[in-house]
Amino acid sequence: MAKKSKTKPAPRTAPKAAIAPAVAASPTLAEVPASPSLRVAHGPRIAIVAGLRTPFAKQSTAYAEFSAQDLARTVVRELLARTSIDPKEIGLCVYGQVVPSVHAPNIAREIVLGTGMAPSTDAYSVSRACATSFQALSSAAEAIASGQHTIAVVGGADSASDVPITASRPLARALVELTKARSLADRWRILSRLSPRDLVPVPPAIKEPTTGLTMGASAEIMAKEAGISRAAQDAFAHRSHVRAAAAWEEGLLQDEVMHVPYGRDFAKTIARDNTVRERSDLASYAKLKPAFDREYGTVTAGNSSPLTDGASALLLMREDVAKALGYTPLGYLRSYAYAAIDPRGVAPTHGSTETPGSWMLMGPTHATPLALDRAGLTLKDLTLIDMHEAFAAQVLCNVQMFSSKLYAERYLGRSEAIGDIDDARFNIHGGSLALGHPFAATGARMVTGLLRALKRQGGGLGLATACAAGGLGAAFVLETE
Amino acid sequence: MLEKQPVTTTIREDGVAVLTFDGAGSVNIINPAFSEAFQREFSNALSDANVHAIVLASAKKDFIVGADVAFLDALVFADDAARLAKELATGLLAVARAPKPVVAAVNGQALGGGFELALAAHAIVLSDTGSVGLPEVKLGLLPGANGLLRVAERAGLAAALDLGLSGRTVGAKAAKALGLVAALAPASVLVDAAAKYALGLVAKKAESSREFGRGVVRFATEKTALGRALVFDKARKATAAKTGGHYPATTRILDLLARWSRDGFEAAAAVEPAYFGELVVSDASKALRSLFFATTSLKKETGIAVDSAPTAKTLTGVCVVGAGLMGAGIAAVSLDAGLAVRLVDRDDAGIGRGLAAIKKRVDQRVKRRRISREEGAARLAKLSYGEAFPRTATLVIEAVYEDLPLKQEVLRRVERELPNAIFATNTSAIPVDAIADGALHPENVVGMHYFSPVPKMPLLEVVRGSRTSDEAVATAVSLGKKQGKTVIVVGRPSTPETGPGRSEALRASCYTTRVLGAYLNEAAWLLAGDATSPPVAIDAIDRALVQWGFPVGPFQLLDEVGIDVAAQVGEVLRHGNAPRFQPPPPLARLLADGRKGRKNGRGFYDYSEKKSLFGDRSSRQKLVDPSVYELLGITTFDTRIPREELQMRCALAFVNEAVACLDEGILHSERDGDIGAIFGLGFPAFRGGPFHYVRFLGAAEIVARLRGFEQRFGPRFAPAAGLLTGR
Known about the structure:
The complex is a heterodimer of chains A (481) and B (727). With 481 residues, chain A is of the alpha+beta class. Chain A has helices spanning 27-30, 68-83, 107-113, 132-145, 169-180, 184-192, 215-226, 230-249, 282-285, 319-324, 363-375, 392-402, 405-412, 432-435, 442-456, and strands at 46-53, 57-58, 92-96, 122-126, 151-158, 260-262, 268-270, 308-318, 331-340, 384-387, 460-468, 472-480. In chain A, the strands form two sheets. In chain A, strands 1, 2, 3, 4, 5, 8, 9, 10, 11 and 12 form a ten-stranded mixed sheet that branches. Chain B is globular and about 85 Å long. The two termini of chain B are 46 Å apart. At the A-B interface, α2 of A face α14, α15 and β12 of B.
């Protein structure tokens, strides 16, 4: 007796194929509806079941010996152990790093193979600069929404301590040619082309390839053109450190941060972010010299996020699967949006439709209204807002433009400002200025932190938003029950 | 249906005859049926004019894993065994002298007689995952079909000494480097590769491609009288130091190779059968073979009665609580078994130390090429650590400090967080029942007594408490086997007939702990002396027992185990109704003096780091700390006491306690007792274990000696009931 089934056109009594599909054994995977063509799903939500990160550590401190891959495996392994998810149930791993690795270009696959996940778990790596783990999250969410997977692990890791130092172009070319050279004379000819200068190793570029500007220089431009004072920047950095230190002190973060033994014979353990100034003193910020514009600048090491090592990870599931497996999710993904602006844009002038010149870090202002529209919400509906703090200047500039009707009209094509950000709901436990910013790990760190903070407040809606190199922006609306 | 032929021949189009070994069992072994079939097929192939060359191959996972050892036991006379060896050797000589090229295609392992057969071929092509070895020495024998001589011919004297005396298995790369095999090939194309090699030999008669450097060394050590003298002098000294002269096989291996290097193959081959025959009937070989069969039969057991319904839980991972030396060791062997491991400790520093120990072991194994770098990384990838238990753990092994309230606290946490998990306690002294006392599910509590250092010690003693379930026991046994351990199950469920009493007080203590306790306690009495026997020097006692065959003496062992730990264990053993575990009273002064043994640098021996003129004093040359004697008030020693009496007092205390354990049902069989003593405590293997020793000396003789000691030293030597009933 065949029951009517809209989603399963194949007869139920079909003879067993010689090679049975391996997924049939897994109840959760078996529930993926078979659909004749890809279509937009309106079913269960995407649940963020759990999140975890390593403590974040300043460049070349605790994680001096760790590669991004090591950090990633460490955090994912612990996430799997704590959630006790059956590795065979995880269909997908999407992971990212920003500082490229020469040894393991597909870090996601290395994580699968190096954490006790099932080798059959699919894996690919993503990169979206500072919004990389947002990208990992949305890519996996899309895979779940389209019915390709039900459970995924996502995240990002970066090691500022383990940067690839490359050879100069002439040396690299010579080395490639040498592998093909046949005679000694050929080899000599190739080597004799090189000058001593070509032998000097090349550190990775910190400038934007398109604008030739460093991030800090972009922040400087924004600070100057938007009129954000040194004092305001320093005060905001101080605020970030004070709040982060308080969150640690009150024990709000310890459940989302694992302990990592390190060093020779693992004799030491890092249990907290070593980037946070435990006794931040506002006066001391003023003493620092500007880092990017010595003469007229206001952006200093004190009001910028530090170079950091760390990793983070999230466990995603389709809502019904999470509940069937007995998990209580941290929260759900309500909507998200990415936006891109021209990092080379001309100077902001009246009547221009261009973005302000080199206001490269305005991503949050551009992405947020899109995400809110998609969620059917306005800024006022949000209980908490978390914005990535690359630079105090960048945060303050974005906060200012959230409120600006003029900016909205001119650059967002909207008649109303996005809305005023209520300081009491904004980055309540600090942000990247204090906690540090391992580029690819920050997004997942923000998602976990925001959802846990929302839960402590009794639930509600939250926004996590970040700027990224190249003029990119990401905004994610999350909800808790 | 036709009976399965152990050897079948197929002739390939290229004129290569492939003799495929596929015996009736799960592995190929050399037995009369095989030999007969082989000789028939081989001579057919030789006489077949269409056959240009012969390849020997196996249809099993391994080539041939050895000769059938079981029927050696039936041989009473050395001459019969010698004749058997000679027959096999003659058969192999026919292979070696065959007019057509013969190549052995060794797919997996070729061991003992199997390797000897392969060596008789003109060349070996080995699978790159294969291995070869001559493990006969481990059974107290030597390879009886000229295998050792052929190793010497091909790879040189040094290799023959190494393989023969250690019995170790050599991997593919090493075998190629030594010159034992002609070529390596992937298993998938092995027979083709061997056939190609054989046809190559047809084309050009066997060429020798020995490396020059090795040739010079070989000439100096093998072809000159002085070189030979030096090599054998060194080898004999090293062997004697290792075996204490208790293993006649090693002596005969040296004799045989000495004869080969002086007089050549023929002369050595002529004496080989006699040596083999003599060893087959030697006591040492009988003991070692008994141990081999005991181990083999034990491997097939599940730890519970065959008809018991519940079976072992399937484990994909284990959770180890306590990241100390034992915990880290248990985690390491679990990772080796391919299991996911969660290491739990409340202390970050403890976790760090555990991680360091585990990583160091993996790194070492990678460095020694036991496992590949990738395999090492894959094992570490399955290790997680932290304070939290995984929600789904099915088995938790507790390896925290030996302290009852602490262990019970861990048990309570496990029962709270993982109500269905099996709780295995790694305790040597605390009875499992004491730990399970007050547990919600005492049936889930089982003892898993590992020995330190865990990765090195082969034994696991699974301890059944009076309420432990079959499922828990079977799960523990199956885990131990996965970890590569030899597992014995001790302890027993209490039955209505077992009233409270002596057995009740000692009920769940491990067998090994009890026999070791009796043995060490007797050593302490020897040291302290009493009314009838004056004190004996510490190093004299240790030396005597090392000479008897123990790897270290009792006092050195006490220092390693920890004097405090030993005292604590003694207390548990003495508790209740076992006054024979009463230590000599002056010993308490050592503890009061804060002596804990090697770990705090203060024990029976001196651990101070004195620098001599030539740097660090060698740690092997340990000296007794004279202040021990002062503490104990010992000024004069009994130097006339015969060494044999020192040995007998300790050894018989050991043996007597073993029999008592069997009497009480703590031990389930003599076999388990022998294996536990040898693999767990270093009881001399050539003596076959305490029960084999009783059979060897005779129960009546043991009882007579015990009675003698009982009269002189008191009731602790009262013979166990099992000895009197003449088991």
